[in-house]
Amino acid sequence: MENKKGLIFDIQSYSVHDGPGCRTICFLSGCPLHCEWCANPESWQFSEKLMFAESKCKHNQGCIRCINACLNNSIKIQNDKIELDWESCRKCDEFQCTKACYYEALKLCGKWYYVDDVMNILNRDRQYWGERGGVTFSGGEPLMQSEFLIELLKRCRKKYIHTAIETTAYKDKDTFLKVMEYIDFAFIDVKHMNREKHKEKTGAHNDLILSNIEALVKSNWTGRLVLRMPVIRGFNDGEENIKEIIRFMKRLGLVEMNILPFHRLGDSKWNQLGKKYKYSEEEGTPKEKLEKIQDMFLDEEIACYVAHDTGF
């Protein structure tokens, strides 16, 4: 078996919200969509990224180690606090500041793993999964690192590890279906049925996503598919869009939907990347809105799970 290398920005053990049972979640870097509400903006680029958590910074105690370590003079003191020249920092590939920071205020997001490294973690964790658990590959978009992912999935198949994926399905059909051969359980996002509105908020049209879902249904894949939709006020929470999703699902014989309430948990990550979060003032999705959308699916005999209240 080959020992390919991939870029992973986080690995979380003991998750109970990303597929059946208790699971280990591997978050792969790189994503072709740039959703304005994204909770993992650090996943967008297929590269290691600098993040700055100002709340952890100890400059007020006299620490200037990062300033002394920076090779490009990109870190300065402004208004008695540490300020980064983000344009310069994003061009850096040395990241000496992260090595000098004892307090992890400056940290490097993204780490290269060989397939063997990941399998060692999964073999360590599997004793805690129970009969229904396993591994979930998320992101970012795990399909962006398809060769690395396929090799991991092949190893999992040999070890009888249950595999799940959280994906946008935004990848060429052949690669998408090849990956899905080794997947037991899939979440696929359907963010909007209108191609232009989809592009407006995500940066890409939805044609490829919808056609891949249809191709998967028409293939001989035997896994379990649950569609997902983050509920974004004023974007995809209108009745007409929900009806379009229902028509799409019924045409393909799909019977499970998971709607996710909006949250601002990604706000701090946008700040740590030196970016402005457009949804920083947006409130969480009202319970009444979620219940109304859920009822629309249930009325059409489509199971609809709200947030983490799922049937798996």
Biggest sheet, spatial arrangement of strands: 7-1-2-8-9-10-11-12-13
How helix-rich are the residues, as a percent range?
25-40%
Q: H/E series, N to C?
A: EEEHEEHHEEHEHEHEHHEHEHHE
Give the amount of beta strand, in percent.
15-25%
Number of strands: 13
Total DSSP helices: 11
Low-confidence stretches: none
Describe the structure.
31% of the residues lie in helices and 22% in strands. It contains 11 helices and 13 strands. Strands 7-1-2-8-9-10-11-12-13 form a 9-stranded mixed β-sheet. Helix 6 (173-180) crosses helix 8. The two termini are 32 Å apart. The model has no long low-confidence stretch (mean pLDDT 96).
Concise structural overview:
It contains eleven helices and 13 strands. It has 312 residues and is α/β, with parallel strands linked by helices.
How does the SSE layout of this entry go?
Layout: E1 5-15, E2 23-28, E3 49-52, H1 65-69, E4 75-78, E5 81-84, H2 86-89, H3 96-100, E6 106-109, E7 111-114, H4 115-125, E8 134-138, H5 146-158, E9 163-167, H6 173-180, E10 185-189, H7 195-202, H8 207-218, E11 224-231, H9 239-252, E12 256-261, H10 267-272, H11 287-298, E13 303-306
Parallel strand pairs: 2-8, 8-9, 9-10, 10-11, 11-12, 12-13
Antiparallel strand pairs: 1-2, 1-7, 3-6, 4-5
Helix pairs in contact: 5-6, 6-8
